[in-house]
Amino acid sequence: MGAEAMSPAPAPAAALRPALPGDVPVLASILRESIFGLTGEDYDEDQQEAWAAVSDEGTLAERLADRLTLVATRDGEPVGFVALADNKLVDMLYVHPDVAGEGVATLLCDAIEKLATARGAKTLSVDASDTALSLFKKRGYVAKSRNTVQREGVWLGNTTMEKTLVP
To answer: Closest Cα to residue 62, out of 33, 35, 24?
Structure first.
């Protein structure tokens, strides 16, 4: 066989759609899988457990209720999501570990930045986890402050970053 025959097929393209109330269980699962599957180099098990408390379905549903939330899908199945709060804060960005590095986070960020710009936002901010810091840096977000937040009695670090949007 030639090299072309042995190379893996490209991942199917992701599609976007608005989040629906019935998505909460799968979004909670993506959030948990993302935390436990992608953040181990930056956060210890206690920190991951405390962070994952936000994946409680009731808590997540309440948090997403007043946010513009987009869901990325592959073959009709959700694989990631992003939430925009008050048209100025990227509040949540999570991608399932199975599709990490395949452009899903970029697709979600591109869309939410375009929507915020269309709605009149001049800047967007994010409290980026240490794991997501490089993604946001590559997208033109600039670090403004280093933070420590307490969740479930455990301290976690993140960085507030901001990006100027170009209409």
So the answer is: 24
